[in-house]
Structures are given as structure tokens and as C-alpha cells.
Amino acid sequence: MSNMLVTGGAGFIGTNFVHYWRREHPEDRIIVLDALTYAGVAENVEGREGVELVRGDIGDTPLVEELLRKHDIATLVHFAAESHVDRSISGPDAFLSTNIIGTHSLLKAARSVFLEGDGRPHRFHHVSTDEVFGSLEPDDPAFAETTPYSPNSPYAASKAASDHIVRAYHHTYGLEVTTSNCSNNYGPYQFPEKLIPLFLLNCLSGKPLPIYGDGMNVRDWLHVEDHCRGIEAVLGKGSIGESYCIGGGEELPNVDVIDRICRSVDAAFEENPALAERYPDAPASRGVPSETLKTYVTDRAGHDRRYAIDETKAREELGYKPLRDFDTGLEQTLSWYLSNEDWWRKLA
């Protein structure tokens, strides 16, 4: 049995990781540290066996040190971050504060307890994004661990900075760190400002589906549970000081993703006529295709054209590979949102 500190564990990916880890490692105890800002939901993890939720800021270094010592923690998995690109464009200050200063606060606490304390074996795992690598042209090779950093949004720049600080704490102080850079996640518990849950819920409520530019921006889609499996592999088999790219192997234009969402919603209404009563504003409730809600809007400032992940290193060194194809994962995601209306109604 061991104890783990998970920052941002009441957010989307953190919540799924906590649930996954408890299922796969029921002997371990998890302390979740989360500031419970707009995207953190206490009920995601509160009251779960083997999980303790602490409301607090990762920028509170003394608090983090206290948690590491009090709970005899040897593994820290760092999810906590501001992550919505649109929000970073309109208000970058919070991104620099949380993603850079907050990460440095955690590193200071980990150094104090892990290195200057009893010198216990430890791991600081930093969860990052493929957006730090910038944008790819259609024929460019996919992002790999050796791809030069070239962030294009305040969000991506703040995550790039945090990656570098984590690396520096390993090379300068000897902190035992690993980093993973993931592609676009989707799945249960995702806050409805991101593309897939936003468009799913807009289809149900009959609201427009706003598509940036020509809709041909390409992303690599990764089901959140496959991401959790990837982090598990890094924690178990990853080399100290190394980074690993974790992708879903599903490179799709945004407009293709949106079309699949529309078809999935339409199919769900055909299979379950009761949905028309629950969601009378949905076009599908009247037999009208959800795609009629599509509308094209002015492109986002600095919108990266294409992301793609080369997961060769994770596959060869860790044995990682995604288990879900996109259509299966999307169907499961839609089913979850239809079954958990009480959860998203409070947030949407």
C-alpha cells in the first residue's frame, strides 16, 4: 500500500485518473488537492473509498509540504492546470499563475520533502500537452519527444514553461521526475466548454454548433481512460527524467468530429424515442438531422492547424497503446452524458 497526491484530481482528467487508479490499485490511498475552481467538481471524488479531497491551491507551498509529510506520500501526479485555449486568449494571467508559478510551488515542496527531508524514493509526474510543440503542416511528421517546443497560445506557452521547470528541477536538484505530453482528451466528466461535450449538449438543446474557420483543424483524439493507462505505464516503467508522448492514434479534422457527434446523437434518438421527451429542443426530437445546427464562425486567434502524436517511445519502452477507437469512445461518451444529466446540468 502507498499514498499518492493528485493535484487537480476533481477536474476532468484528474477525476478519471483517480477513478482508474482506485479500480486498478485498490490498496493505494489517494489525496486529491484541488482549488475547486469552475472546472473542478467536488462530488467527482468526494466520499469515494480510499480518496481524501483537500480544497487548496497548488501555489500554497507550505500546504503541499504538509500533505506530503502528513500522508507519507512518495508519488505526486500533477494535473492541476488552466487548460482552455479560448480562456487563455481572453485572460492569460490565470494561466501563467497556475501553470507556471503553481507548478514551481509544487516542485519546491517536493524538493523540500523528498530531497531535503528523508531522501525517500519518490516520483513527481507532470502531465502536459502536445500543444507545447506548436502546429504541424499536413505532411509534417507527428510530434515526438524530440520535437522542438514552439507554443502558439498563452495556454501552450504556460505549459511549455512548466515542462522546462520540471526538467530543470531534475537536472539541477536531482528530483525524480517524468513528464507526459498528451493529445486531445475526451470522455466522462469533461467540463462542457470543450468541443465534444459542448457540441453534444448543444445538439440536445438545439443550440448552434460554432465551427472555427473552415473546420479543417486536425487533432489527435485520445480517450481519457487510455490516457490514464498511459500515465500508469509511465509511473510503472518510465525512466526518471524522461518525457513520453501519449496519443490516441485518431487524427481527425474538427468538422469530421462534429459530423460524427451529430450522427451519434441522431442515432441515439432513433434508438430511444424517450429522448425526444427529455430534449424537445433537439432537432433530432423532430427527426431533423443535428447537422443543421452547424454554423461557421471567425477562426480563433493563433489557431494551430494540426496536432499529431508519434507514440513510438511509449509503445516500445512502456508497452502503451490506446485501446479505444474514436467511434467506440464517442458512443460511450454520449451514453455517459445522457445518463448523467444531473452532473452537467449544474455546469452547462
TrEMBL record:
Cofactor (UniProt): NAD(+)
EC number(s) on file: 4.2.1.46
Keywords: Lyase, NAD
SUPFAM superfamilies: NAD(P)-binding Rossmann-fold domains
Catalysed reactions, as listed in the record: dTDP-alpha-D-glucose = dTDP-4-dehydro-6-deoxy-alpha-D-glucose + H2O
UniProt enzyme class: lyase
Domain of life of the native organism: Bacteria
Ranges of residues in domain NAD(P)-binding: 5-333
Molecular function as annotated in GO: dTDP-glucose 4,6-dehydratase activity
InterPro entries the UniProt entry points to: dTDP_Gluc_deHydtase, NAD(P)-bd_dom, NAD(P)-bd_dom_sf
Keyword check for Transmembrane: no
Protein family according to the UniProt entry: Belongs to the NAD(P)-dependent epimerase/dehydratase family. dTDP-glucose dehydratase subfamily.
Name used for this protein in its record: dTDP-glucose 4,6-dehydratase
Gene coding for it: rfbB
